[in-house]
Amino acid sequence: MLGPVVPGDALRADALQALRGWPAPTPEQERLRVRYVRHLEAHDPATHPGAGVLRESVPDHLTASAVVLSHDGAHVLLTLHAKAQRWFQLGGHLEPGDRTLAGAAQREAREESGLALTVDPVAVHLDEHVVPFCRPGTGDPDRPVHHLDVRFVAVAAPGAEAVVSDESLDVRWWPADALPDPDLTELVALARTRVGGA
């Protein structure tokens, strides 16, 4: 007999499996990989709401995003985030119905771009960042919410035209060698290398 369904349990299990064996490309990425695994191991779904992956897990929870490359790898699709007022790859919070991190990244990319995309199931990059506008937050400025983002890569079909979602101010293709934010450089370089477009 199966036990009760615990929100985030399957997603946490997928994240642990994916991250425990992930070949980090740099020492800093390895540090983050270990940090993510320890975070997940510390959040037993039976006792921690959100299991460390859903947004009610505070102060830290996983998110998933996708770097969308053009078919030739020369351009990157970015969204101008309405709350952050910055250009980012497509992505966001994990939902209780998500079964895998890659699936969550694919869902977010589709929702934010309108494109039918297939996400490579192996992560390409990790990034931890403070998100002051994430809710529900901690309510304590000395204990801000951190997004533990797991980033994947997808390649769009030739001529793909994205649409702006309610979560964005704009969605635009940018040259991979002329990005609007230097914080995206390593991520895009790793994504292009992964698909052979560098």
Can you walk through the features of this model?
β1 (60-69) and β2 form a beta hairpin. The protein has 198 residues and is α+β, with helices and mostly antiparallel strands. The protein contains four helices and seven strands; from the N terminus they run ααββββαβββα. Strands 1, 2, 3, 4, 5, 6 and 7 form a seven-stranded mixed beta sheet that branches. The protein has helices spanning 9-20, 27-41, 101-113, 185-195, and strands at residues 60-69, 75-81, 87-88, 90-93, 125-130, 146-155, 168-175. The mean pLDDT is 91.
Could you list some keywords that capture this structure?
single chain, 198 residues, seven-stranded mixed beta sheet, 7 strands, 24% strand
Multimer state: single chain
Question: How are helices and strands ordered from N to C?
Answer: HHEEEEHEEEH
Largest sheet geometry: 7 strands, mixed
Number of DSSP E strands: 7
Q: How far apart are the first and last residues' alpha carbons, in Å?
A: 50 Å
Structural class comes to alpha+beta
User: Low-confidence spans: pLDDT under 50, at least 5 residues?
Assistant: none
User: Whole-number radius of gyration?
Assistant: 16 Å
Mean pLDDT: 91
Break the fold down into its secondary structure elements and pairings.
Layout: H1 9-20, H2 27-41, E1 60-69, E2 75-81, E3 87-88, E4 90-93, H3 101-113, E5 125-130, E6 146-155, E7 168-175, H4 185-195
Parallel strand pairs: 1-6
Antiparallel strand pairs: 1-2, 1-4, 2-3, 2-7, 5-6
Helix pairs in contact: 1-2
